[in-house]
Amino acid sequence: MNRLRQVFEGKKAFIPFITAGDPSIEITEQLVMQMAAAGADLIELGIPFSDPVAEGLVIQNASERALAGGVTVDSIFDMLMRVRKACDVPVAFMTYVNPVYAYGVERFLRNCHEVQVDAMIVPDLPFEERDELMPYCRKYGITLISMIAPTSGKRIQRIAREAEGFIYCVSSMGVTGMRDKISDDVKDMVRLVKEVSDIPCAIGFGISTPGQAARMAEFADGVIVGSAIVKIIEKYGSECVPHVVEYVRTMKNAVSRG
Amino acid sequence: MIMSKGRFGIYGGQYIPETLMNAVIELEEEYNRLKNDARFNGELEYLLENYAGRPSLLYYAEKMTKDLGGAKIYLKREDLNHTGSHKINNVLGQVLLAKHMGKTRVIAETGAGQHGVATATAAALIGLECEIFMGREDTERQALNVYRMKLLGAKVHVVTSGTQTLKDAVNETLREWSRRVRDTHYVLGSVMGPHPFPTIVRDFQSIIGREVRKQILEKEGRLPDMLVACVGGGSNAMGLFYDFIEDRDVRLVGCEAAGHGIHTDRNAATMTLGKVGIFHGMKSYFCQDEYGQITPVYSISAGLDYPGVGPEHAYLKDTGRAEYVPITDEEAVEAFEYLSRTEGIIPAIESAHAVACAIKEAPKMNRDQIIVVGLSGRGDKDVASIARYRGVDIHE
Lengths: 258, 396
Hints:
heterodimer, A: alpha/beta, TIM Barrel, 12 helices, B: alpha/beta, six-stranded mixed beta sheet, four-stranded antiparallel beta sheet, 43% helix, 19% strand
């Protein structure tokens, strides 16, 4: 069932992020299907949270818009159920741990299994705390993604040895958001991972332009882009779908060239 | 399930982004080294005595005791510390810790402004760069403290995200720490956040309870029957309680902010109404909706206006060792006025929540029993907002 392997097989992956329910759950449904058709290899779907401490302003605002619009974990599961009738694109949830904990960890992951969510990215659940979700991730076949950051140092190889699916490499210090320059330090992070594991590495935080994406894809297995897409959604609202599709197509091409 | 480090029962832990993990690991290692270092402890003791003014008085509130006609009431006068609250105990410890760790910059969140002022003060003294994050609503409620921090050389960032109060100030300070962690120490102001903060802050605040033990034994030759303190994150309560946890006959009572009442949606009664969750780096009780979204909280007191509580308090609640009671705005304001009028002591509105609890409990107790109230701060900062509450418009 788990399709994460095919995400990176024989190609460089482009992984777009959107916040579920921004600007509405109906648009999110269209975005998931259309981004998949435009070449997205894995879709990172953010579950909005009241207090997203790892996010910059763009995604903070998207979370606020989504919550104000009334989206809930239940309406997100329902939406994915509809998507699954027509589309089998791999999906990773990006969520803070409290919405999962409040919903009930087993209930949440059982539902993930039912709507074929492939992976969980939980920014406030570091390596040391992964047992909070891991037993039920295992039980329901959902991959819990490990993250590494520029400050991880000696932790990188320890994390890499046990990581599954792919590693989310945080390219920059701080929170999510577009940046003019991405430091080359991330290249060393990927090299350290590859010394101990052949697990794919996807780079996120700060990437917005095709040029940046192509440069990252030279040494990484995938590129994750969030704020730049959310910014397009913010700008065009319910008319955003064609604009996002065009952007995803451009970025996928750039990553494939990388 | 294997429990990670820094647990109080199931509570606590280190639920923070990977970017910050090495910082908290380094902090724990350095703290464990320095807490037994004679030079570090000598420096800290010197500052606590000569700069903060410790030990703080344990004052017998005789008029209040006679008026209420029950247990003897003592006030632990943390309001007399330099900067006007218990916050200085923790801040001097952490800023010294930061200096010994080679950090050149400290950042902190603040609600009422007491922790921000204390951090700015210690940073000025020790010579570190200082930036404080404060919710916009709180900067308006506590304008005087904003200016105080600036006078002390700190930069104050007004936080406009979310509910624009203490919770959002913590969010923003965490974000800033992840932007610039290498030269910066986050001086967390309460017994909350990821391990090792709840332990470090408790240790630095536990001087309150140690002094109380010594002082009450000198004055009364016996331990108190009850300790009462207000609880937002819970640092002054933890500081007062900690040395007495093994003394099972001493009742430990934490007072949380019930705002307009626990049957309204305008309160911050985390222990009474909250559910177990994971937020701000810790597993503990939080005010949240059924989907785990943190819900807006309210209290007249900016320092208690927080949707969570320190993990060790959550543990003390579950084990029944401590009890937590809600106190409304109205009860706190009445206690604020009562203590001013009766003893000539204007308490912080936060501390007035504990005073209100003592006013309720003392008459139910015998005259040979003893209550110690943690008077965590002084009330100068609250005078204008209490006047507003009473419909009096004054200009500061």
